[in-house]
Design brief:
heterodimer, A: alpha/beta, Rossmann fold, 4 domains, 23% strand, elongated, B: alpha/beta, Arc Repressor Mutant, subunit A, four-stranded parallel β-sheet, 6 strands, flat, binds FE2/S2 (inorganic) cluster
Amino acid sequence: MPDKISEEKKIGVFVCHCGTNIGGLVDCEKLAEYSKTLPNVKYSEHNLYTCSETGLAAIKKAVQENDLNRVVVASCTPRTHEPLFRECIEEAGLNPYLFNFVNIRDQCTWVHMKDPEAAYEKSKDLIRMGVSKAEKLEELEKIIVEVNPSAMVIGGGVSGINCALSLNNQGFKTFLVEKDKELGGRLKELYQVFPSDKQASELLNELVAKVKEAKNLTVYTSSKLKSVNGFIGNYEIEIEQRNHNVNLNVGVIVVAVGATSYKPLSLFNYNSKNIITQLELENKLRDNQIEANDIVMIQCVGSRNADREYCSSICCMTALKNALIIKKREPNRNISILFRDLYTPGTIYEEYYRKAREAGVLFIKYTPDKQPIIDKSVVKVYNQYINSEISIPFDLVVLATPLIANNDNRELAQLLKVPLEENKFFLEAHVKLRPIDFATDGVYICGSAKWPADISESTTQGLAAASRAGTILSHKTIEVEGATAYIPDWNKDLCKGCEVCIKICPYNAIVKDENNEIQIIQALCKGCGTCASTCTKKAIVIRHFTNEQIISEILAFGGEKVA
Amino acid sequence: MNFEPKILGFLCNWCSYAGADLAGVSRIQYPPNIRVIRVMCSGRVDPEFIIQGFQTGIDGIIVMGCHPGDCHYLEGNYEAEMKYKMVQKFLKFINFDNRVRLEWVSASEGNRFAEIVTDFTRQIKEQGPSPVGGKSPDSMLLDKLNAILLAIGSYRMRALVGRERIITEFENVYGEKVPLEKFDDIFDTAIRDEYLRHQILISLSNDPKSVKDLAIELETDPSVILKNILVLKNRSQVNMEKIVGVTPIYTNIMEG
Ligand code: FES
């Protein structure tokens, strides 16, 4: 658009009083007058509330009457109000990116209340800086990408199956990829599940039956992800199923790979015979082969310690549930639970604890510095309430071990370009604001892949991931950020192909094409700008945050270069 | 009159800028000297921006980003840190290293933002006005700032700093990592060399000089100057213009 570049810049500046928030401290009328003295400013005014209906109407009117092609608003913060003003100037017929925000409230009048004069001077500087950037702003197009209305769910455990079924029910073509021979995940290993006390196998059979009926759902068992290319709406996937490759095209990806049960090989004389894990106990319960009379359960084995600081969250309930199953069958068996802290949140879980106490299960608290010791036929444990060691005879010791991250998480994380947290579980975009999303658009997470989750939690998250995915899949096209990195034609010769940008781009957005030229995939780029400040030949330009624009702000504050 | 320093802040949109807004919402008061330029990520801050800022006479520059691990773009702040360290090493040559700072401020740390700005303003006040600002800027210092700008803009420095994390944090295909100390050595040498070379270039673009003249002007051993002149000759950046008596006179052939 060469005519656009040479086009005369006509900037309008709107100074907001924000009631008395700004106007109460600095003279907005004078600021508007001052703005008129700045280069390329053709119009300025001050408004009581620029974001009100009246204020927005005033902007539109001024744009049209004065043929303005850049708008600057000096008021609160772009973080809350930029979308509103962008929309406003778009309605006035301007490209929404020809707008610039100057923050003279949150970062000025509110924080310099005792120094109105300095706040006024600062406002002037900030407006001057904002105007100088505005002059350099360019029209940008939002990037539109088409959405392939299909999904891949990785992991066929309880969260993955629920997610896939829900996507299927929403009418989206769904591929469920499971590395095992059969669906089910950890559910296959369990006997009865809390809080329903339903047989795990029964629950699994119901789910699998639904999967069989699902019309839009294809299952790949014994399959493993090999490669992932593309971006939100358009992923090209390769999976390997029993030595042959399958290619899939999907719009979104859900990670539901679950977690692994920890085997306490060197802890508490574990031998998987009379010293077993809770998981092994489940097997015995299923086969009804518990002969032991004195049973001691030890909690927090291999978790909440220096190696693994986290609480696995499912073990307290598992122990309570299994203790109750035994007590129900044989009320005379002795069961002691050695615990550090007992977490049974909510009314239903707490009830398990109450029932276990009523059934005569013994609860003994131990502290991490005095771990229980297994000695031939007794477990010795220090009891702080009576301040001495007690010995509990046992025929069977059951260790509550945590769920740990799968050992192939790292590999998968690298394929998908998503982060892991310190314990190698997958890390969501934001713990409270975006708990089911990854920072990478179009990739979601649910279940124990993120953190040890029990069955109802995994189900909830699986359904949540399906509805998050649905917000994308239900659209034919989606808009992605237009302020991206690119190499302008006139910079193409600068690039030496050093590839540093390819290595530092966190989104794999930069590649070398078949002609050995650097390409920045617009739909993948998020516009962070790190590649531009790293580019060894300064060939990369960041739209909306160009070097020119930023330097003009610096100069507007510092004054022309002294040199 | 009291010295009121000019302070420039580069704030990333997602954490630090939000933290600064929160200071406002909570009405936490801090000195009014800072002017903020919003960037999407601290990784966007090109080291050249900082030098260019100082060239205008700005007294102090602070870059703020999300805490390590919290960058909205995953790792931009690590890249920012690498660049910042380089800039600081260069600024040490002219005693400006205390005029820059890098800080991590999250969206919930309005208080911390105000504290940092207060402290940085105090620090800059203590240092006094930038010798580059005001009516009679120190021209020698300006030449040095220019040499720094050119040095950090050079392919060699940008390639080194751009690869620092790749070289030191990630293993290469043979499963080996370059230890940070070793990299630092290479890095420090490069910084010293490039700074001197660009000083030489700037001096020679003013007027042609002999090694001896350069040695006196740049307060550097003649043998070191000569060594670097030879490198610059190899890079086709300087040329021997003429010989006066037995002394070769060199000139910058890149400009003009
Ligand atoms: S977004 Fe804040 S440092 Fe990258």
